[in-house]
Every structure is written in C-alpha cells, then in structure tokens.
Design goal:
The structure holds two protein chains of two kinds. By secondary structure, chain A is of the alpha+beta class. Chain A folds into two domains: 75 residues, Ubiquitin-like (UB roll) (Roll); 66 residues, [2Fe-2S]-binding domain (DNA polymerase, domain 1), CATH 1.10.150. Chain A has a five-stranded mixed beta sheet, sandwiched between helices. By secondary structure, chain B is an alpha+beta fold. Chain B has three domains: 147 residues, 2-Layer Sandwich (Aldehyde Oxidoreductase, domain 4); 182 residues, Alpha-Beta Complex (Aldehyde Oxidoreductase, domain 3); 329 residues, Aldehyde oxidase/xanthine dehydrogenase, molybdopterin binding domain (Aldehyde Oxidoreductase, domain 4). Chain B has 18 helices and 33 strands. Chain B has a seven-stranded mixed beta sheet, sandwiched between helices. In chain B, helix 6 packs across helix 7, helix 9 runs parallel beside helix 10 and helix 16 packs across helix 17. The radius of gyration of chain B is 27 Å and the shape is globular. The chains are: A alpha+beta, B alpha+beta. Chains A and B meet through helix 2, helix 3, helix 4 and helix 5 of A and helix 1 and helix 16 of B. Bound molecules: FE2/S2 (inorganic) cluster (FES) (2 copies). One FE2/S2 (inorganic) cluster sits at the interface of chains A and B.
Chain lengths: 156, 764
C-alpha cells in the first residue's frame, strides 16, 4: 500500500506517494528526480548516497523514506548557494579532489557534516570522518587536502 | 619547445569539476525517458550447466511485465577480444559457464516488478562438472569450459629472445621462485548501467556507462544484426572504469534487445553485488620465474612460466597474456628471455584488462625476485636496478624502441629518497613495529598499437564569441583526459581552458575512436586535437594575415589575442578575428579537423610477439615505507614516493591525482584485496567483505619528476594513468621484506600470512 508523505528537502516540502519499504535514496532519485545523490552499493558500504539529515551525515540507502518525514533533509542539490558552489564544493574542484566524480556528492556531504561538527579537523579526524566513503580514483589524498583547505575557509 | 604556455603544464581544475561537485553531472543510471521500462537480468546459479529449457510464461503473465528475452531471441553473436575467436554470448545460448552468466532479461514497469518476474522464470539446467582451478583446468581429463579449447587453454604466448639456456650456464647466480597473485576487482563505485531506446525507423540510441563507447558501437551492431550507422552510442559521465568498462556486456545488450521488443526505452542498472560476482576481474596468476645474474648484478636471462586464470571467456585476455610476458623486457636490459604464458578457461568470472593490464602481475614477480637476488648476492637493490636500467634510444630484444626515457634519473632520485627516509626515521619506538623501505620499477606503453582501427580524431568548432567546441571520440572515465585535451586545444588556439567546451562521445557526431585503454587518450587523441586545432588556426591565420597585413606564418595566437610575431601591438582579439572570418567576404565556417596515430608501429603477433607496439614508453620508480606489527601481523604503508617520467605533464594536478590513485589502489592490491571463491561462488560480493582502501589507508605520497620531453607526445606528454601502478605492489612487498626479512611471493599479504611466516622464520 502506498502512503502519501511529506519530505522537507533542501528547505522545500515535497509530497510523495511511497511504498513503506522504499529507501530515501530511491525516493530522492526516482520519485523526486534528484539524481545528484548516487547509488553505489545500496547497502550502506560505499557512502555515495550520503545526505545530511538534521545536521548528521546519513546513508540514504539505509533509511526508509517514511522515516525521514518531519526532518530537514539536505542533499547535494541544496548545497550550492545563490547559484554558486559552496566552500567545500569549491575546494574539491580547486584542489583536485574529483576524478570520475561518482563518489563526489557523498564525499562532499560527509565533509560538510564533519566540518559542522569539527570546524578545524586534523588530518586524522578528516580520514576518520570520511572513512565510510569509498573512492577508487583519487586515493583520497586530494580529497583530504580539499577538506583541509575548506576547513580554513569560512563555510558558506 | 616553446615556453610561456597559458594552459599547458598548469594546475588547472578539471573542466567537469563544478558539475560533478554539484551533482549535476549525469551518469547512465541518472538518465530516464518518458515511458521508460526497467530491466533486470537473470543469472546462472551454477558454475557450469547446460540449459535444457527456459519457461518464461509465468513471468510474462505477471502484471507489469512487458517482455522477457533469452538467448533464443538473439542471433547468437559471440563477443571476444579477437573477433574470430569470440566465445561469449550476451545471453547464454546452450550453456552457462560461471555463476553470474546472464541467462534471461526482463523489462517491466518498475524494478521491483522486474525483480519479481526473474523469480518466475523457470530454467531447467543440467549441471555439468565444473573446473574452477586453473592448474587443474589444464589437465587432459578436466571438464572443458569451451569444447573448442583442449586442456582449457584459452590463449598461449611463447616469446623467446636470445639463448636462455646458454645464458643461464654463464650466470654466477641463478634463482627460481614461485609467485601467485589473487583475483582482484576494478573497484569502480558506479555499477554498470545502460539505457536503450529503439525507434520504429530501426535505429537504436544508447546511453551507457562505457569507458570505450566505440567497443559497444561495433558489438551492438553485430549482436543485433544491424548496420553500424543505425547505432547511436552516447556517453554520459562515467563513474570510473580502470579497464572494467571497456567491453560491451549483457546489461548493454539486454537493454537494447528489450527496447526493440517492447518499443519502449529500457534502462538496466545492475547492483554493486552483481558487479562484484558477475562481471570482470583482474587475471589471477601463477608465475614461476627463473632469473640469472652475473656477480656484478648484470641481469643475463629470465625464463618465466605464467598461468593466468581467464575465467569463463576470452574477453581481452590474449592481449593481457602477451603484456604479462612481453613486459618482462622492461624496464631493464635483458639479453636473453623466454616467457611461456597460458591463459586458461575456468568456470569463474571472466578476467580482463585492469589498470596496468597484465603487467602488474609479472612485474610483481620480477621486482620481488630481483630484491631477493640482491639480498643474497649482497648487492644494493638500487644499484642492481641502476646497473640494468634501460636508457633512451635503446631497443629491447623483443623490439620495443625506447625514445624519451627518464628511468635512470628516477632510480637516482629514488636512492636519495631512501637515504633521506632512513635518516629521518624515528629511532626508539614500539619494539613490535618493524620499519622497512622497498622499491619497484616499471616501464609502460603509451597507446599500444592493437589490431583494428587505431586512429583518434578530433573536430573543433570556433564560435563567434571566441569560444571553442571540441569533440573527440575519446572518453574520460575519471582520469581527466577531457581536461587535458581541452588544454591542448586552448593552447594551440591561444585561448583559455574556460573558453573550451568539451563534447562527450556521440557516435552520430564524434569521430570514431578505439577507446580508453592502454594509456592512449592524452597521447594519441591529444595529438589529434593538436592537429585539428592547428587546422582551424591556419584558417584563422590567413584571415589575420590579411587584416594585419602580415605573412600568415608570422601570426601568433596567445591568451585570446592574435598578433604579428615580434610586434604584439599589431594584433586583434581572438573573438574579433573570428567575427571577421565569419562575416567578411563570402564568410567562413570555422571547423578544424584532425586525426592522428603513431607511425611505423606494427600490430604485434600476440603469440610470438616481436615488434614495437608503442610510439614511446613511460618509466618510473616507486619507493614505499611500511610498518609491520609483528604482534598483529598487520602491515601499514607509512609513506610513498613516486619518481616518474610521464613526459611533460599537461596538467600537473590531474597527473598527481592519477599517481595518488594508483598508489593507494596498490596498497589494497598488496595488503587486503582478494575475491574469495568457493566452488566458483564469490563469497565476498560486497564492499564490506572485499576490502578496498579507505581514507584511513591513505598515506603521504611524494611526487617527484624525472620527466622528459617526448618528441612525439602532445606538448611533450606521455602517460600517467597506469604505468606506475605496476611498481606500487612490488615496492610494498619489498618494503615488508626489508622490515621483517621475509620476501612474500603471494599477494595479498594478510596479517595471518605475516604471523605464520614470522613463526616459521623464528622456528628455523
Ligand atoms: S549507496 Fe548507500 S552506502 Fe552505498
Ligand atoms: S572520484 Fe571516482 S570514485 Fe571518487
């Protein structure tokens, strides 16, 4: 049986008809058309689907859409402000933290969540904060550098 | 060589960086079309079985199901790296040959319905004896994976130069060792995905996660039995490939076939679990290698016997095997060499190209053995390498012609790194932690000449505002070639990188191209872009010459200005020149065209392989430092240095990214990654159980150049994407050897292996 739910995504309320077992990831991608959040494993192992819910990094493949009702959901589409990439996005571009880009939206969301908690993380803290997000292309070196640099710039 | 470049050699952010950072970049699974159906593939549960019957009636009657297709709905085309020996149907015909082989495909109104339908398809199998071990597969009485291949030999290579037996007799030191490498996976995070749309005019449009879209262009036409020009392959952004997305797969074919059958667009996105058990892997190998040296460390002869587990199908494996064998000839002088390679069919996932393509396996063996020899002979591993290093303008006995080569310098720089590291190493620490430093070296192809069409093309359109559209047939699967190619176009035309708009592959429009493999794109397509840019620049120079009253040869293009050489004030802006060209007189349409392939290369015979397959070669030395915890057996890479000759980098930041990815990936290959199988079934088809490096494994990677300027490469560039991955694994293995005195001959080196070896050692 489908259920009508309201999801607050990037500050906008979306009414969606969902099956109760649908994940937030599938609803974002297939029902709302926000494909910026990626599905790498659908099993909580890669981090590509990371979104921020009420300030916390959450794997959207592991949470049901119905569980996300009444919460503040931030996806990669809501990160840029006034048509401009935010500090973390900027740093990823500028310091080469992006190659194929498939892990990138999840990495950026995980980095933002980390910087919200620890505004000036040490390298070790960055590594720990991103250890749930897999990247096969970059070897993480430039991603860590990007987050380090973003942490010294004010978050927009 | 001209300096003062505006675009070349700069640390410029990649052209697609922003849209990837905002999530706007569209990958195959992000695409959808009105009326689109969703597909799923039914896979074989058996490693080896005959298909007696498939009954899809129940599945077809499930509400929401639109079509079911099986091998019976195909014309029976079989794919393979050597077309005449194609052995892999996109949907199984009479037999299935590994757990995961595609048997049927369903299209339904949504994924859940398609999934449900799979369970309703009744396949009657007759199980056949399976063979999953490559050595057993070579026995006369082993079950045959393919009837046409006795002893399951999928491909054989026998390279022989000089007189190996005679040479060994003259050696002061000879050793023989047995090495093994595990099956590992490409590890891209984006699963395979395809969207196909067949229209009633008989034309197919296809969007798929393909790193070499023209592979699919050709095979799709063959498999569907239609002519090439009816196929349109469009490339979205690709979420990593590393060799594992070159070929066309069941997912690509099934989406097209189902679209033809239903008249609707069909999208199939496979799960990561399917990627991990039903698609490609790197060839696992068993390598016996004998090496002979003179007292002074001169390498005299190598004799290698290689068994590569090819899995169920040929794939690109003939090339893999040839590379494994022939790259024993690089990067050291080797007067006598024999390499006998057997690629063997087994009832497991097919093996194919993966970053470094075949070379990492054999060089792991050769480089580790070299350190063992050095250790026993009392020679310094760096000196032995220096002594045998190939240099510029040498030709290897199998015919590789070396032109630019900064290899020797890379070893010398490597030595300095080691000296420095030994000095600044912390003194008293935990007695259970042993530190060690190891080295590995490599030489690699830069755009190999392979059979078939080998040329890259480029088309450039200049817009009235001075913007430039660049189209090639090459694909950026993450490595940054779209950016490098755009930089080349920008530099030749004297504009800036942000003025260039890069158009991704659309086979209706972009030039035909072989694909993204063998580190060919920047080198070969880069030259095609250079030629195309020069073509349109010459057209513009004619106009500028008239306007500025000068000789066309004296017109210069730089940083959005066009001027007369020697008098920069006699010039106009680039956009203004374009307007003049388009509007004055009868008016011009500004289109540049170029194509390029290296000259004088022959297609090497993969079985006997003599010949030069690459216009130039890249070289390098990798140094790694590890800490081995003798209590837990855990090894940790502390830092790395990569000293390499990639020619002259087009984009330093992108180049570093390639090297860092290779380095950290190599840590996984050496220490943690292995596909575990039991009776042909993959036991760890998840990222949780198949352990790839995470950010916690990332270490400091120092990148030092011993770069050359390659005369053939665009702006002096060679390759940086693959080669150095070859040397990462042996450098770590050799570092562990240095730390605890145990040379491991099998990768990955697990903590258990370390503990066992330490126990054995102290027991002696
Ligand atoms: S898709 Fe959610 S963690 Fe991989
Ligand atoms: S950039 Fe490709 S997986 Fe991270």
């Amino acid at each position: 049986m489908k259920e009508l739910i309201i999801l607050t995504i990037n500050g906008i309320e979306h009414g969606v008809l969902v099956e109760t077992h649908w994940t937030l990831l599938d609803v974002l991608r297939d029902k709302i058309g926000m494909t910026g959040t990626k599905k790498g494993c659908d099993n909580g192992e890669c981090g590509a689907c990371t979104v921020i819910i009420d300030g916390e990094a959450v794997l959207s493949c592991l949470i049901l859409a119905i569980q996300a009702q009444g919460k503040d959901i931030l996806t990669i589409e809501g990160v840029s402000q006034d048509g401009k990439p935010d500090t973390v996005q900027d740093a990823f571009v500028k310091y080469g933290g992006i190659q194929c880009g498939f892990c990138t939206p999840g990495m950026i969301m995980a980095s933002r969540a980390l910087l919200n908690k620890i505004p000036h993380p040490s390298t070790e803290e960055i590594k720990r904060g991103l250890s749930g997000n897999l990247c096969r292309c970059t070897g993480y070196v430039k991603i860590i550098e990007a987050v380090e640099n973003a942490s010294t710039t004010e978050i927009t | 060589m001209e300096d003062g470049y505006v675009n070349i050699g700069k640390r410029l952010p990649r052209v697609d960086g922003i849209i990837k950072a905002t999530g706007e970049a569209k990958y195959a699974a992000d695409l959808s079309m009105p009326g689109m159906l969703h597909g799923k593939i039914l896979r074989s549960p058996y490693p080896h079985a005959r298909i007696i019957n498939i009954d899809a009636d129940k599945a077809k009657r499930l509400p929401g199901v639109r079509a079911v297709v099986t091998g019976n709905d195909t014309i029976g085309f079989k794919a393979g790296g050597i077309s005449a020996r194609g052995d892999e149907p996109y949907l199984a015909l009479e037999k299935v040959r590994f757990i995961g082989d595609g048997v049927a495909a369903v299209a339904a109104i949504d994924e859940e319905t398609a999934e449900e339908a799979l369970e309703l398809i009744e396949v009657e199998y007759q199980e056949l004896p399976a063979v999953v071990d490559p050595v057993a597969a070579m026995n006369e009485d082993s079950p045959l994976v393919h009837e046409h291949a006795p002893r399951n030999i999928s491909y054989k290579t026998d390279l022989s130069y000089g007189d190996v037996d005679k040479a060994f007799k003259k050696c002061d030191y000879v050793r023989e060792d047995h090495f093994e490498t595990a099956s590992i996976r490409h590890g891209f995070i984006e699963p395979h995905a395809a969207l196909a749309s067949w229209d009633l005019s008989g034309k197919l449009s296809f969007w798929g996660s393909k790193q070499s879209p023209y592979f699919t262009y050709r095979n799709m036409a063959k498999a569907l039995g239609i002519t090439l020009s009816r196929i349109r392959i469009v490339q979205p952004f690709i979420g990593g490939g590393f060799g594992g997305k070159n070929e066309m797969f069941d997912v690509d074919f099934s989406s097209a076939l189902l679209s033809r059958k239903t008249g609707k667009p069909v999208r199939i996105v496979v799960s990561q679990e399917e990627v991990l058990f039903a698609y490609r892997q790197r060839h696992p190998t068993i390598i016996d290698i004998k090496t002979g040296l003179k007292k002074d460390g001169t390498i005299m002869a190598v004799d290698a016997h290689i068994i590569a587990d090819g899995g169920a199908y040929l794939s690109i494996g003939a090339m893999s095997l040839y590379l494994m064998c022939s790259f024993l000839c690089l990067p050291y002088r080797l007067p006598n060499m024999r390499a006998r390679g057997y690629r063997v069919y087994t009832n497991t996932q097919p093996s194919c190209a993966m970053r470094g393509h075949g070379v990492p396996q054999s060089r792991f063996a050769a480089e580790v053995q070299l350190d063992m020899a050095a250790g026993e002979m009392g020679l310094d591993p760096m000196e032995i390498r220096l002594k045998n290093a190939l240099g510029p303008h040498e030709t290897t006995p199998n015919g590789f012609v070396i032109t630019s080569c900064g290899f020797e310098e890379s070893i010398i720089e490597g030595k300095k790194v080691i000296e420095k590291w030994r000095k600044d190493r912390p003194k008293d620490g935990d007695p259970n932690i042993k530190r060690g430093i190891g080295v590995g070296c490599y030489g690699f192809v830069v755009g190999p000449r392979v059979a078939g069409h080998n040329t890259a093309g480029a088309v450039i359109k200049v817009h009235e505002d001075g913007g430039v559209s660049l189209m090639t047939g090459s694909t950026d699967s993450g490595q940054g070639s779209d950016t490098a190619l755009s930089q080349i176009a920008a530099e030749v035309l004297g504009v800036r990188l942000e003025d260039v708009r890069y158009g991704m592959v659309d086979s209706d429009i972009t030039p035909v191209d072989p694909g993204t493999y063998g580190s060919r794109v920047t080198f070969i397509t880069g030259n095609a872009v250079r030629v195309a840019a020069e073509d349109v620049k010459n057209q513009l120079a004619e106009v500028a010459a008239k306007t500025l009253e000068a000789n066309p040869r004296d017109i210069r293009f730089k940083d959005r200005r066009v001027y007369v050489a020697g008098s920069p004030e006699r010039g106009i802006s680039f956009p203004r020149l374009v307007k003049i060209a388009q509007y004055s007189g009868a008016g011009k349409t500004l289109l540049g065209r170029g194509y390029w392939a290296p000259e004088g290369l022959k297609v090497v015979n993969l079985e006997t392989g003599r010949g030069n397959m690459s216009a130039t070669y890249s070289f390098g030395t990798q140094v790694s430092e590890v800490e081995v915890n003798t209590e837990t057996g855990r090894s940790k890479v502390i830092r790395m240095a990569m000293l390499h000759d990639c020619g002259t980098p087009i984009n330093e930041m992108a180049m570093e990214g390639q090297l860092e990815g290779s380095a950290i990936g190599g840590i996984g290959h050496t220490l943690t990654e292995e596909i575990i199988r039991k009776d042909g079934r993959t036991m760890n088809p998840s990222f949780l159980e198949y352990r790839m490096p995470t950010a916690l494994d990332a270490c400091n990677v120092e990148i030092l150049h011993t770069d050359t300027y390659d005369d053939v490469g665009p702006f002096g560039a060679k390759e940086s994407g693959e080669g150095i991955q070859v040397s990462v694994v042996p450098s770590i293995v050799n570092a562990i050897y240095d730390a605890v005195g145990i040379p491991f001959k099998k990768i990955p080196i697990t903590p258990l292996m370390v503990l066992d070896a330490l126990k054995d050692k102290s027991g002696k």
